[in-house]
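Example 3.2
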Amino acid sequence: AVYGNFDGVQTIAEESSTYPGVTHPVYAGGLGFGMKWMMGWMNDTLKYFKVDTLARKHHHHKLSFSMTYAFTENFMLPFSHDEVVHGKSPMLYKMPGDEWQKFANLRALYGYMFTHPGAKLLFMGNEFGDTNEWNFTQSLDWHLLQYAPHKGMQETVKALNFLYRKEPALYHFNFSYEGFEWLDADNSDESIFVFMRKGPKAKDTLVIALNFTPVVRENYKIGVPFKTKWKELFNTDAIEFYGGGINNKGDIVPHLQGYNNQEFSITVDLPPLAVVIFKSK
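Structure, written as tokens:
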């Protein structure tokens, strides 16, 4: 009735059970919601990121597990007000390490969030790394934007939003398995994940590499599906984001040797605590 009578509306279920069909059509026995909060993803992701970076290899499955059920509903990935109140601490202080590592971890977390299938929900203040829990009686700490780490965090989220709107691979198959393929989900020793996001056309394909340790991985080999040259499209370690500036400049020429069940491969540098996105030219 809601969708039939009101154009442009969306219904989203803030629901944490495993009750099936919350976002399935009513005529198919579902509840008819447009989207459902992916609470399991949120809990597993925060548990993983709270762990010391050198111990994450023992918790690798917490990030790969979500893909076993990611397309059973139309999921939204939520970092809501519930996660920054009642002593849970702001998002920034959930991250381990010194100040630089906390910001790098949070930038990487948002990079992972925006490249993972599903819609996104990021509560106000999270986008610039507020240092206080949310308090409805006072303003957000906007003055923090005068400091480079917080400004860099805001620029990261701004760039991710722009990329999310621009790249079909990040939104076209948000709720369908056609838009996702693991390249490497099992490199627990180095805490690295690599996957593809796909759009309706082959040229939309993105390769996303996640490095969740504070170690630079040089000459890291990744399988790719195309022989064409590749380029680095986005990097959470960019200088403008308050990162260290470790990147892959210029064209990345594929090797004819296959890897990760792909016909070709590329060799790249992965910055510490960072998410890097590659696209064929």
